[in-house]
Amino acid sequence: MVAMFALASEAPAQSFCPAYTASPVYRARVRQVSANPTNWIARIEGAQSGDEILLADGTYSLNQYAVQITEPITVRGASGNRAAVRIQGQGYGVASEGFMIHSPGVTIADLTMTAIRNHAISIKGESGAEAPQVYNVDLHDIGTQHIKGTPGDGVADGLVACSRLSYSATGVRGDYINAIDIHRGVNWIVRDNQIDNIWGDGTGCEVDVSCGTYLSGGGPAILFWNNSSGTVIERNRIVDSFMGIAVGYGTPHPGGAIRNNFVFRSQASRPGARGVVTGDLGIHVRGGSSTAVDHNTVILAGSYPGAVEVWQSQNVASRNNLISLPVWDRGGNSGLVLQGNKTNGTVADLAAPFDPHLAPGSTAVDFASTVALASVPADIDGDARPLGSRPDAGCDEWKACAARPVNLRFFTLSPCRLVDTRQSPGPWGAPALVSGQSRSFDLNQSCGVPATAKALSLNVTVTGPTGSGYVTLGAGGCPVPATSSLNFAAGGTRANNAIATLAADGSGNLLAFAFATGNGTVHLILDVNGYFE
Ligand SMILES: [Ca+2]
Ligand SMILES: [Ca+2]
Ligand SMILES: [Ca+2]
């Protein structure tokens, strides 16, 4: 059968996450050193200042407490495909940390870490860590905080970007959890990360000890406290986590900005070991001064009153947010500025559940009271604000989509593979689609598809899904429609024919949006057999 795939989420106007080596944050090093699963620890612990340790694709067993990094070096996957360099701990039963950073100027990039009891990346301010970079890593099922920063005299200028921090559906143990927990961080940037399912099991344990000690549900997915300052947290997508973003947390937090983030919780509560665990804060500023909370979308199921909450703070501004409840002034504030917030947001304001983009009919589009903010000139996609008559409320500036083309002629092509995410990383290869995210592909550059093609006749295959769910295809630059999709069950392979409309701008851009339970992944294969123009 032919399904008329409706359109998925907007194409990013620009990519904030190029390959690490092509990114503006790339740190050129003095010497490159290759490493493999048998010599990696010796190479890293024996590195010289300025080494770039390149890990070959493979599985790396971590069979000691941690890997100590004491020089300014980079450790990264050589291929750039983070899924292909997999550091595997010994599980939650063995005390361990992944990388322990004791030096200024350390970079960790392009790799995956999982099954480590304590932390995946431990940044030790008290032994000299400064300006750590974490880029394009996948930290999955880590017993406590995935990234932990301990204080010393403060750790300045950290970066966590373009990474995925998550638990699987059964990966949480205890409540001593955060995705990122930084003490005394100074001027950090946390951007463009996907954070899923940071929601504790209600035992109050630190993994499996000290039970009853910790708050049922855990801590904020992103937490900067104990006298942190100047934190910029932007364009992160935090889905189905117990708490979203917190700064200060009862200690002073001068400066900083929380902007263009998407915090979405589809469940009000979950059953826990000591009773129901009700979802908590979306964005929290306690002890802030001149901290900005602008253009975030926070849609929380349930009735927890703090989609955005401000407490004991001075001159905090919370503007142009799309939130499911009014900003909660918890008291002790002075100079609190509230402007342009749409405070009755629901999932209906979104193009699709779990998608940060606005539905075309949402009143958040050109919301009547938004104010121009020079400090937030673009949205989560990089779209310049404003489009239309005024800035939209929330993290997305809605971009109109061209009408579906009509009166097209069909031309056949010999069947040809355009996309296979099981292959090497690249524009038409790995990585797999990640639940809750769109990936975009330019599809008029091979297989004889001309630049003038307006739509493609495709055979769409999904394979290897780690959960059950669906994939939706749509034209780049277009809002998500609420219609058809290719559904799949965990582990299954499904195929279907589809006519997929391409972006109206001639880029040939197509988007693929995936949802898979357990914050899963799924491979996508697209074979073309004809086009319309
Ligand atoms: Ca320091
Ligand atoms: Ca607008
Ligand atoms: Ca947009």
Helix and strand layout, with pairings?
Layout (H helix, E strand, L loop, with lengths): L1 E3 L26 E5 L4 H6 L5 E5 L2 E4 L5 E3 L4 E4 L7 E7 L7 E3 L5 E10 L4 E4 L8 E10 L4 E4 L4 E2 L2 E3 L2 E3 L13 E4 L1 E2 L2 E3 L2 E3 L23 E6 L6 E3 L2 E3 L3 E6 L4 E2 L2 E3 L2 E4 L3 E4 L2 E4 L4 E4 L1 E2 L2 E3 L2 E4 L7 E4 L5 E3 L2 E2 L4 E2 L7 E3 L70 E11 L12 E2 L3 E5 L12 E9 L5 E7 L10 E3 L5 E8 L7 E8 L4 E12 L1
Parallel strand pairs: 1-44, 2-3, 3-6, 4-7, 5-8, 6-9, 7-9, 8-10, 9-11, 10-12, 11-14, 11-15, 12-16, 13-17, 14-18, 15-19, 16-20, 18-21, 19-22, 20-23, 21-25, 22-26, 23-29, 24-30, 25-31, 26-32, 29-33, 31-34, 32-35, 33-36, 34-37
Antiparallel strand pairs: 27-28, 38-46, 39-46, 40-45, 41-44, 41-46, 42-43, 42-45
The structure holds calcium ion (3 copies).
General description of the model:
With 533 residues, this protein is mainly beta. The chain has two domains: 15-294, Pectate Lyase C-like, CATH 2.160.20; 410-532, Jelly Rolls. It is built from one helix and 46 strands. The chain has a 20-stranded parallel β-sheet that branches. The chain has a ten-stranded parallel β-sheet with strand order 5-8-10-12-16-20-23-29-33-36. Strands 1, 38, 39, 41, 44 and 46 form a six-stranded mixed β-sheet that branches. The longest helix is centred in the N-terminal third of the chain and has 6 residues, at 40-45. The radius of gyration is 23 Å and the shape is globular. It binds calcium ion (3 copies). Residues 10, 379, 381, 383, 396-397, 399 line the site of one calcium ion.
